[in-house]
Amino acid sequence: MPVGSRKDSMEVKGSAVNGNRRYLILVAASICAGLTGVTYVWSIFTSPLIQAHGWLSSEVSLAYSLYFVMQFFMGFVGGGLQRRFGTRRLAVIGGVMYSLAWICMGQADTLPMLYFSFSFLGGGGAGLVYNSSVAVATKWFPDKKGFANGLCIGVTGLTPLAFAPLGNYLVEAFDLGTSLTIIGVIPLVFYLVFTWFIIAPADDWQPEGMGPAQPEGGDSGAAARNFTTGEMVRTPLFWAMLAAFAFSASSGSMVTSHGASIGAEFVGLTSAQAALQVGILAVGNFCGRFGFGALSDRVGRANTLLITLGITLADMLVLFPLASDFFTFAVAMVLAGACYGASLTVIPSLCGDAFGTRYFGQNYGLLFSGLSIASILGPMVGAWAKDATGSFMPAVHAAAIFAVAGIVSVLILKALEKRVRRRNA
Questions:
Q1: What gap in Å lies between CA 316 and CA 311, rounded to an integer?
Q2: Phi and psi at residue 202, in whole multiples of 5°?
Q3: Which strand (E) or helix (H) includes residue 352?
């Protein structure tokens, strides 16, 4: 029976057909992917970095954007290497790289050092471990892709709930270098334990009792065949999916990267309240990733994206402009985080539905470039708005435009899906 890699086949042995073990692997994959969510406490450290080194907001924000560029690049490269070297080995390497990034960033006193540590090491390591974890979760749950991706990716959004208050405490109690070192050591310990459970099943593995896959919720359902990456990029559906990912994630990316600073401007949040808002954003992010992921199994992937983009548009046009107190701003942040999280969960499930799971690691690794685009557009638009006008409000208006573009992209995607279904009928 073919397997995801020779290395993984040696690790799985007879348990490749044991469906009970997949839940243990899903928990490990969720923890490993979830630890990359430490990145979302970045906004707590931006002001201390600016104050310590005299850098501009746009210069520091560039490190956040470059991080996601490297995450996409290494996720794509890692997706191609999984079948040769095994998901476990790549996950271990990625976890160690990601942890070292925070430790090295604590010693960075120049912008190139900042970009190397956080963007190159951190983004590259996150790409390897995140892609490996999501790929394993998807392959073990061909019958519940939305649920598995929702849990695995959802924990990534929940991680800041623990690390935001910790980061705020460390910044107030220690110097910046010590704080960042501690932030890096904690995930390192977890990675050295849980990456050993990141094991892929056989390519053709299915849980007992699962019949032929059927379209889910009106979407394209299971792919008629497994597309290679080269075959995938030659389909219009891929490009529509990429555009939908980029635009649907851009609004949330702007908010997650500048959340603490936006709160300080709009409602005068203290540092402690800002840390609490990061935690609130994390709860919304998790609920969106898990809740909308499960919803997409019922109502369809594209329909779920349309729902979240409509909520995002209302959030940016109504709630954020009206936010004048802690509670209103918290509601706006929860909605932004939930809708952002939804795109990160629904898109990989949509990729598996449309193009199959055999080459999922590399296919989703390429599709992940949509998040890289969003992570450049969102944070940089926010930084440019702040530097140019002294306010984040123009960035909120730009986020509403991103949501409209996302809705158009998803409608095109739905039209292309209907064409595919008619062709396969």
A1: 9
A2: -65, 150
A3: helix 326-355
pLDDT of residue 49: 86
Separation CA 128–CA 133 (nearest Å): 9
Q: How many residues does the chain have?
A: 425
231 Cβ neighbours under 8 A, 6+ residues apart: none
Residue 290: per-residue pLDDT = 78
Residue that has been written with the tokens 């209907």 in this structure: 418
pTM, entire model? 0.69
pLDDT for the residue numbered 213 = 47
The span from the CA of 177 to the CA of 246, in Å, is 34
Residue 169: Cβ-neighbour burial (10 angstroms; 0-12, 13-18, 19+): middle
HSE-up (13 A, CA, CB side) for residue 347: 32
Query: Tell me, what's the pLDDT at 218?
Result: 43
DSSP 162-222: HHHHHHHHHHHHS-HHHHHHHHHHHHHHHHHHHGGG----BTT---TT--S----TTS--S
Least Cα distance to 385 among 280, 267, 265, 285 occurs for 265
Q: In angstroms, what CA-CA distances link 79 with 71, 91, 109, 231, 385?
A: 12, 11, 33, 16, 36
Distance of CA 140 to the CA centre of its chain: 19
253 HSE (CA, 13 A, CB side): 29
Q: What are the residue ranges in the chain where pLDDT is below 70?
A: 1-20, 209-224, 271, 275, 424-425
Beta-carbon contacts of residue 366 (< 8 Å; ≥ 6 apart):
76, 79, 229, 232, 233
CA-nearest of 132, 145, 15 to 83 is 132
Mapped onto helix, strand or coil, the DSSP state of residue 3 is: strand
Residue 351, token pair as written in the block: 């990729």
Q: Where are the beta strands (DSSP E) in 22-142?
A: none
